[in-house]
């Protein structure tokens, strides 16, 4: 796929990346009731409702999740009923790969030092996430897509992977490096490797990042990502 084709890829699916993924390539990992949807337990807490949901749709989502559970609405702007307790609000941005940079020139078969992480490495992945706090990651999150890592003497010290998959796009997420392994370019190498794999499939990479994480934003810009829009990440507790 050429750079011009990538650059022209329709971005409308990115306005509702959770819903688009749950209705499409992640349908096998979805629970749904009416127009409300969420991921299976242990995969992700992200939930989706339609544009302009009514009270019945919020009731369906509450029934899916159960009482007192987290409804991670991600970047969805819809406001739940007043008896849904706010849990968190975080300002961030959505970034898309420009298609004009060639980060790393890393074909999948020549990713020196990069290993694929599967179910047998979940305990290590969860341990790294606990130390670095890159964002939500659960025991089955690796089922959302490919996760890659870097090891130091057999110990996992950095990782990144694929998360939401709206049509034509794949999100890069869980980018993290252990404190003792930072400054060695691991994050850049892993993101570049994922970009190469995603583009080779004819898709376009995108990601989300907290607005306060200026170091990560600068890294992604160096790797060819540009800001598409500002977003607000929000979570609520069901009644």
From TrEMBL:
The keyword Transferase applies. GO terms for molecular function: acyltransferase activity, transferring groups other than amino-acyl groups. It comes from the Bacteria. Coiled coil: none annotated. This is Ribosomal protein S18 acetylase RimI-like enzyme. Pfam families: FR47. InterPro entries: Acyl_CoA_acyltransferase, GCN5-like_dom, GNAT_dom, YpeA/RimI_acetyltransf. Signal peptide: none annotated. GO terms for cellular component: ribosome. The lineage of its organism: Bacteria, Bacillati, Actinomycetota, Actinomycetes, Kitasatosporales. Residues 112-239 form the N-acetyltransferase domain. The keyword Transferase applies. Keywords: Acyltransferase, Ribonucleoprotein, Ribosomal protein, Transferase.
């Amino acid at each position: 796929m050429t750079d011009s084709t990538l650059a022209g890829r329709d971005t409308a699916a990115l306005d509702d990346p959770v819903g688009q993924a749950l209705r499409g390539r992640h349908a096998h990992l979805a629970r749904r009731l009416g127009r409300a949807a969420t991921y299976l337990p242990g995969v992700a807490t992200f939930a989706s409702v339609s544009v302009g949901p009514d009270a019945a749709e919020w009731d369906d989502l509450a029934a899916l999740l159960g009482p007192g559970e987290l409804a991670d609405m991600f970047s969805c702007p819809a406001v739940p009923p007043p008896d849904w307790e706010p849990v968190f609000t975080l300002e961030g941005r959505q970034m898309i790969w420009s298609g004009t940079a060639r980060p790393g020139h890393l074909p999948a078969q020549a990713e020196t030092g990069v290993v694929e992480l599967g179910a047998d490495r979940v305990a290590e992945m969860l341990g790294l996430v606990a130390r670095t706090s890159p964002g939500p990651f659960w025991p089955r999150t690796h089922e959302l897509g490919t996760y890659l890592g870097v090891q130091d003497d057999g110990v996992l010290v950095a990782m990144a992977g694929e998360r939401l998959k709206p049509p034509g796009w794949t999100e890069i997420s869980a980018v993290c490096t252990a404190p003792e392994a930072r400054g060695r370019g691991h994050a850049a190498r892993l993101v570049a490797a994922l970009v190469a794999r995603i583009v080779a499939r004819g898709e376009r990479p995108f990601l989300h990042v907290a607005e306060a994480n200026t170091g990560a934003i600068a890294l992604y810009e160096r790797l060819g990502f540009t800001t598409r829009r500002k977003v607000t990440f929000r979570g609520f507790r069901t009644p």
